[in-house]
Amino acid sequence: MAEKKNILTYEGLKQLEDELQDLKVNKRKDVAAKIKEAREQGDLSENAEYDAAKDEQRDIEARIEEIDKILKNAEVVVEEDVDVNVINIGCKVQIMDLEYDDILEYKIVGSTEANSLKGKISNESPVGKALLGHKVNDVIEVETQAGAIQYKILEIQRSN
Question: What keywords are assigned to this protein (predicted)?
């Protein structure tokens, strides 16, 4: 079975590459020094610093492996090529909640990059999925546990 493609914007790709570099160059070295220092304290069977450093090392190696897998299957969206007449991955959108007149802004990204605290929603999320392919002035409806929410699309633009 083919592995799922990880859709990334250029910004998301760059962030992952930078994180990977930092993990490999800095974090590995830092944790190795912590392990060495803890070993020098003697008995490892009751050495909390050693155990903590080994746990940190395991987490770092797991994250490196995770990022390697993401990058291996990455499909980068060329944001300059994104058609801003319809909503696609890589677009910034401004929408209005028709019930409360709240105006919201989101960047549509692949699930790997999604971070709602930074206004980045996944193309696979309920709102992201509902927005894809729609145009300015379209009204979309998103089903939630609390009921249906209607949004009007106010603006679509490239995110860069």
Answer: Coiled coil, DNA-binding, Elongation factor, Protein biosynthesis, Transcription, Transcription regulation
